[in-house]
Amino acid sequence: MQGVYQAAEIYHYGFNFRDINTEAAILLAAADRLGNGGRHFIEFACGDCPYAETLMQAGVTYHGLDLSPEMLAFSQARLQAAGLSTAGILHLADMRDFALPQRFDLAFVLMGSLHFLDNAEFLRHLDHVHAHLNPGGLYVLEWCIEYAPSVEQQSDWTEESPLGEVGVRYWRRQRSALRQSFDERIEFTVNGDLAASSTDIVHLRYPNEFALLLQSRHSQWEMVGQFNAWDLEAPIGDDTQAINRPLCILKRRLSL
Questions:
Q1: Domain 8-145+205-252 part of CATH 3.30.499.10
Q2: Which one, 33, 96, 126, 200, has the greatest CB density within 10 A?
């Protein structure tokens, strides 16, 4: 049985619920309103690169970094089919330890992919991102802070696709309260038949812990906002009720 991060085409359709054009526009708006306004972007754990085509057509110099050769091959073929050049923009590398010759104005990571890193790995990753951002550059993190702690979570959905009906089942259960680690399982079905599955250990960071970790890098980063549901007009506060797909935006300090 292949893992979900090897089943690139199924993954692409299974997470097709996102409003790519609107969310790409929000990344551009964040760069202008909160960052340095530059148009060199990099996506970590880029996978199927869902935003790449829209961003590139808007004038962004896009780069993506991922550990899965299957995902990168799928993304390369998809972007080339759209008539876009992929020369030198997709990088097979580990986001905990990478070195690229390029520097960027905005970095982003989606769908809580930083949960795969423990705290030490997360800080090491932040240091590498910092080294690759221009002064005033942003790092946009989607769902990488756990605002509503729980010991177990499950969700299921389906998406129509050229492959048929793609079903996604997500399940997470606490493994260690002390380490805030969880067992996570994702399953894909196509027309009801199991097509791919992966089980991993993930590490959640709650708001106070995230703030303490960020404080250890206070000379490098400032937090410029936390927003709900990909809406820069919806800052997360004490009165925020249902939180869905939140964004945390960090900024590389200008003084360094």
A1: no
A2: 126
The residues pairing with 239 across neighbouring beta strands, listed in sequence order, are none
Indicate yes or no: pTM above 0.90: yes
pLDDT band at residue 75 using 50, 70 and 90 as cut-offs: very high
Six-digit token string for 101? 């010759």
Taking 80 as the threshold, does the pLDDT of residue 256 lie above it? no
Task: Evaluate whether 109 touches 141 at the Cβ level (below 8 Å).
Answer: yes
Using CA atoms of 69, 75, 78, 79 in order, give the dihedral in degrees to the nearest 10.
-130
| Rounded Cα gap, residues 208 and 214, in angstroms | 10
- The domain locations on the chain are 8-145+205-252, 152-203
Number of Cβ within 10 Å of residue 227's Cβ equals: 20
Helix (H) or strand (E) holding 121: helix 119-132
* Residue 39 neighbours by CB distance under 10 Å: 16
* CATH 1.50.10 corresponds to the domain 152-203: no
Residue located via tokens 């876009």: 84
- Report the b/e string of 83-108 with b at 16+ CB within 10 A: eeebeebbbeeebbebeeeeebbbbb
**Helix-strand-coil split of the chain, %, nearest 5:** 25, 35, 40
pLDDT of 58 > 90? The answer is yes
Contacts of 206 (CB under 8 A, 6+ apart): 145, 146, 147, 149, 180
CB 196 within 8 A of CB 7: yes
What lies within 8 Å, CB to CB, of 59 at 6+ separation is 39
Separation of alpha carbons 115 and 112, rounded Å: 6
